[in-house]
Amino acid sequence: MSAADPPPAGAAAPMELLQFPTDFPIKILGRRIDRFADEMVEVLRRHAPDFDAATLEMRVSRQGTYLGLTATIRATSRAQLDGLYQELTAHPLVKVVL
User: Fold this and answer.
1) Per-residue pLDDT at 53 exceeds 90
2) 22-97 — its CATH code?
3) Across the chain, how many H-helices and E-strands are there?
């Protein structure tokens, strides 16, 4: 059975885990440097133009080496989230995206 085949008779159709639009939190961890948060806001706005930077939550690591950001965007599609995650994970300042 391929992914394109319908489920067998009596089997439940796979459910989409997310229903769009939805508020979707994204956690981004990177080195604590001056431009990190600003650059992440630029990336977020490319994929979610209505993102409000004032809602960005920031936490500094215990040793002060890293900055953790939590951004909640209004996600409209899986393709939007995929593109955002691809750009964030490819960014040279980013260590981890959850």
Assistant:
1) yes
2) 3.30.70.260
3) 2, 4
At 4-15, the pLDDT tens digits run: 555 555 544 455
| 53 token code pair | 């930077």
Please tell me whether residue 31 adopts helix, strand or coil conformation: strand
The number of angstroms, rounded, from the C-alpha of 54 to the middle of its chain's C-alpha atoms is: 17
Strand partners, 60: 67
What is the residue extent of each domain of the chain? 22-97
Other residues' Cβ atoms within 10 Å of the Cβ of residue 36: 20
**Beta strand spans in the chain (E):** 22-31, 57-60, 66-75, 94-97
Tens of pLDDT, residue by residue over 64-89, are 999 999 999 999 999 999 999 999 99
Identify which of 24, 35, 50, 51 has the alpha carbon closest to the alpha carbon of residue 91: 35
Distances (CA, A) of 5 to 8, 9, 15, 63: 9, 12, 15, 52
